[in-house]
Amino acid sequence: MIDDAHSYDTRIDGGKHWSLRVRGGTSLRLTDLEGGANVGMLFYNPQNPLERYNAPDTLKCQHTFKLTRGHCLYSDMGRIFCSIVEDSFGWHDTVCGSADRRLVAERWGERRYQQYRNDWTQNGLDAFLVEAGKYGLGRRDLAANVNWFSKVAAAEDGTLAFDAAAARPGASVGLRFEMDTLVLLHTCPHPLDPAAEYPRRPVGLSLATAAPLAADDECLNSRPENGRGFANTWLYRCCGTGRAGE
């Protein structure tokens, strides 16, 4: 799925944040370099930030609680931001959100930047707010986010349990972006992570040109709803306020 002749690779340390605009037709691969990483991620339409990732629609239209290969990530307007075309981890959370400053301080202690510099303990909520602010977005624009490389299962009584044993070095997930997308991300701890010390697990990130969508594409055909989602996305790219690649 990745054209290695035209790619960009970088490393993001644990407890950091970043944002970027990804054009439709781009592949983004994340790799858990040491095991135990968490990547919180949010998606917006850069031409209309009111359109953003919708976790409930993503799950209910694909009849799933977890995210893995073959699934699509939907906007709140019925379009597909990206599809999961590769996945060696197998179970990604999109219901637990991000930890805030209070939770991080209670669980791992508070380490302020003024004293600890780059070793301070950041949290996912504030990380998203910092990146969102770069684009004129704020607290009211945040939504339920994806947590890549974090497995959370639900018991029969609805209790959510974080599965730390699922972590493994080298696990990766590959996304194919179907439309231009503003991506906000952080590598701060998952809110249910029971680690004794603040987790600082690095992640590899690669960008490249994606292969064109084929008629037998797994994401396109995994659910009937996805066919309609791809049709909505194609119509927007052709007739919306802008085309992918402009």
Throw out a few tags for this protein:
single chain; 246 residues; alpha+beta; 6 helices; disordered C terminus
What does this entry look like structurally?
The protein is of the alpha+beta class. The protein is built from six helices and 13 strands. The protein has one domain (2-239). A six-stranded antiparallel β-sheet has the order 1-13-3-11-7-6. Strand 6 and strand 7 form a beta hairpin. The two termini are 22 Å apart. 40% of the residues are buried. Residues 242-246 have low confidence and may be disordered.
What is this entry, summarized?
By secondary structure, the chain is of the alpha+beta class.
N-end to C-end Cα span: 22 Å
- For the record, the count of structural domains works out to 1
Assess the beta-strand content as a share of residues. 25-35%
Radius of gyration: 17 Å
Summarize model confidence as the mean pLDDT: 94
Helix content: 10-25%
The structure class reads alpha+beta
Low-confidence stretches: 242-246
By DSSP (H or I, 4+ residues per run), the number of helices equals 6
Major β-sheet profile = 6 strands, antiparallel
N-to-C series of helices and strands:
EEEEEHEEHHHEEEEEEHH
Q: How many beta-strand elements? A: 13
Strands ordered across the widest β-sheet: 1-13-3-11-7-6
